[in-house]
Amino acid sequence: MNAKFPGELADVGGDRLYVVDEGAGSPTVLVSSGAGGAWFDWIPVTELLRDRHRVVTFDRPGLGGSPPVRRTAGLRDEADRLAALARWAGPPVTVLAHSIAGFHAEAFARLHPGLVHGLVLVDPSAEPDEPRHARRLGRLASAAGIAGWAAGVTGLPRFGPRIRGMVMRRMTERGDTAPPAYARAVYTQPHVLGAILAEHATYRQFAADLLALRSSTAFPPVPLRVITALGDAGPGWERVHAQLAALSPYGRQIVLPRTGHMVQIDRPEVVAEAVDGL
């Protein structure tokens, strides 16, 4: 990434990851974005937390400021990545995860309970039943990544920031709050498009693998907050999130009736309060 950006590349768990490390306080808050997201989506939240907490925000390989890798990560790979970051930052950590990263965070808590202080899941992905065609679609992840690279030849990535802006306007009231220079630096890169496509291709496989993990590995009794955004969802979404919150005896659900999926942008104070509440 450009030197004017606040983070750095760090060697963590065998990968080079772009990490933004701010503030001070214990336990550290480890922040993980949803599919296609980047560290700067969390600026409104980190600005509220960094006076009281050390906040470590990172980008998965191929996203944000992290360079791409050739392999496609599975659910356990993502859980192990969070474990490596927790050890790098100093455990135990509070994991703050959005959307598809909720799958990763729950798997991390189940597989590495000694590294976890608590979880805050922000409108997390949730599938109560095994999705159809999970493995078949999961096998498309590598092809999706290649397709993103191929699109670079056509010049499509130059429209990346504009497409991101359109998507963000659909999911937030505030629109895209990222500094334009940050969005241009990230979303004009062909490998970022490939990583986004690959993550969407693995969604159902992640959901299926998490359901299998639940049947074999217990969820630890740690503080848990599940923030539910109902702005573009129905009552079924609230129920499945209530089931997530019930995974822990210290779990609680926070329901936001008129908020879109990007809660960290529209309601950063709610996210910060959830972290403080642990």
SSE layout:
Elements: E1 8-12, E2 15-23, E3 28-32, H1 43-49, E4 54-59, H2 75-89, E5 93-98, H3 101-111, E6 116-122, H4 134-138, H5 141-154, H6 160-171, H7 180-187, H8 190-216, E7 224-229, H9 235-245, E8 251-256, H10 263-266, H11 268-277
Parallel strand pairs: 3-4, 3-5, 5-6, 6-7, 7-8
Antiparallel strand pairs: 1-2, 2-4
Can you give keywords for this protein?
278 residues, alpha/beta, Rossmann fold, 8-stranded mixed beta sheet, globular
SSE string: EEEHEHEHEHHHHHEHEHH
Strand content: 15-25%
Tell me roughly what share of residues is in helical segments: 40-55%
Low-confidence region ranges: none
Radius of gyration: 17 Å
- CATH fourth-tier homologous superfamily: Alpha/Beta hydrolase fold, catalytic domain
CATH topology: Rossmann fold
Number of domains: 1
How far apart lie the N and C ends?
33 Å
According to DSSP, the number of beta strands is 8
Strand order of the largest sheet: 1-2-4-3-5-6-7-8
Biggest sheet details: 8 strands, mixed
CATH architectural arrangement: 3-Layer(aba) Sandwich
Number of helices: 11
Structural class based on helices, strands and sheet pairing: alpha/beta
